Amino acid sequence: MRSIIYVLLSLTICLLIGCQDTANQPAPTEPNDNNQTADEFLSIRDFQDSFHGDNVKNDLLEITEGEEELTLSIEVAITQELLHKLQNTTNEFYYTFADLEGSNEVSEALEELPRPIEGQALIDSLNEESSHFIVQQELHIKNNVTQDQLDYLTNPANYELQTLDEERLPVHAIIGLDISTFDTL
């Protein structure tokens, strides 16, 4: 019985020592590994709410048919504010054309999914006066597509233009590529 009391007393002392008052100690801070300023961003996810119809406009999607491929091309305009954020983003981001959400008819007709276009290279090619750039991508279609499938593939309304983060996950999508939204930015 005495040994049980000594054990309990020892445990109580250990607990009391371990639970000292930490109220006067400063809270630990998380290190800022990347030393970002307010104008610098690690990922486009840091400002994903800036991708909306007031900041991003598009022209009509043009689809050119080749022997074994389709070339998709669209002009995109962004505001100077969004351009500044994209220019000051550390991680890469990408653009790609994809099936509309809930559909897979385009991807099923392709030999392979296309490699996304590097967004930083497009943004870096812009001059100070222009915030317009062209996203162009080739889709290699299977040899055995039917005419109905080809008709579907050549309809701009069946695609969306996705902006992808560094992990190539969608952050923003423009649908209705058969309609131009160009107006004054």
TrEMBL record:
Name assigned to this protein: DUF5067 domain-containing protein
Domain of life: Bacteria
Lineage summary: Bacteria, Bacillati, Bacillota, Bacilli, Bacillales
Swiss-Prot/TrEMBL keywords: Signal
Signal peptide (UniProt feature, chain positions): 1-23
